[in-house]
Amino acid sequence: MKVVSEQEFKAEVAEGLVVVDFFATWCGPCHIMGQILETIEEETDEKVKIIKVDVDESKNLAQEFNIKSIPTVMVYKDGELKESHIGVWNEDELIELLEKLA
Questions:
Q1: N or C: which end of the chain has fewer CB within 10 A?
Q2: Is 27 assigned a catalytic role?
């Protein structure tokens, strides 16, 4: 999974199905969410792009999206926000959503 900067963000979510994980390196639940996303990335064979945004490194982006709790996971399709979830997202529920959006 690629950690993207504020400058890269809009280009990264512009096309296709993209999962964005807003996280921090010190956040325990973020590590759990990261493991779930790694599993999903392996299972989807590049049909879904998964990117990460470090809220400590990209404070302006976190503020723009009003990120108050982490992990926060957002799902984009062709640049449009389709779904957002605060906290660790159940793997099966996230996969089901991604399959619907694909």
A1: C
A2: yes
For the stretch 35-89, pLDDT in tens is: 999 999 988 877 899 999 999 999 999 999 999 999 999 999 999 999 999 999 9
By the 10 Å C-beta count (0-12 exposed, 13-18 middle, 19+ buried), 80 is classed as exposed
Counting the structural domains of the chain, the total is: 1
Among residues 3, 27, 40, 97, the one annotated as catalytic is: 27
Q: Is 16 noted as a catalytic residue in this protein?
A: no
Q: What is the pTM of this model?
A: 0.95
Pair of tokens at residue 81: 């926000």
Can you give the CATH number for the domain in which 32 is found?
3.40.30.10
Residue 72 sits in which domain range?
2-101
List the catalytic residue out of 30, 70, 74, 75. 30
